[in-house]
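Contributing new complexes? Match this layout with heme C.
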Amino acid sequence: MKLITALMLLCAATAASATPFPDGDARTGEQLFEQHKCGGCHAKKMGGDGSAIFTRLNRKVNSAAQLVDHIHICGGVVDANLAPQDKQHLGAYLNRFYNLK
Ligand code: HEC
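Output block (do not edit by hand):
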């Protein structure tokens, strides 16, 4: 019985922390995104503001870990020198497109 209660509490706790980037701040992420002109290349490739790159059918990112990886790759291209915390901020911001759990 205790075990079942513990499991139920665990499930509730997991559901409550719906974001995979609990330490990231989406507004800071948005500022970093603009500061490093992340959208420039994406817009050239996809048109519009470029955000379609995050929602296209054959997108590369399908998990929080992959999102951090891709932020790292693209950050390297622009020499952004992103700290782990910055990647959390960017992840929190970009997850508005990805809706990763
Ligand atoms: C030099 C051009 C360029 C810059 C600058 C750039 N990107 Fe990208 N980015 C790309 C290209 C090209 C792709 C698509 C790669 C592919 O399809 O394999 C991409 C894809 C991505 C994806 C994955 C999209 C998917 O398929 O799910 C993420 C996330 C991303 N970029 C984040 C960033 C962030 C954050 C920055 C700023 C630090 C940034 N990018 C700056 C060119 C760029």
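Reviewers usually confirm one structural detail per submission. For this one: The mean pLDDT is 89.
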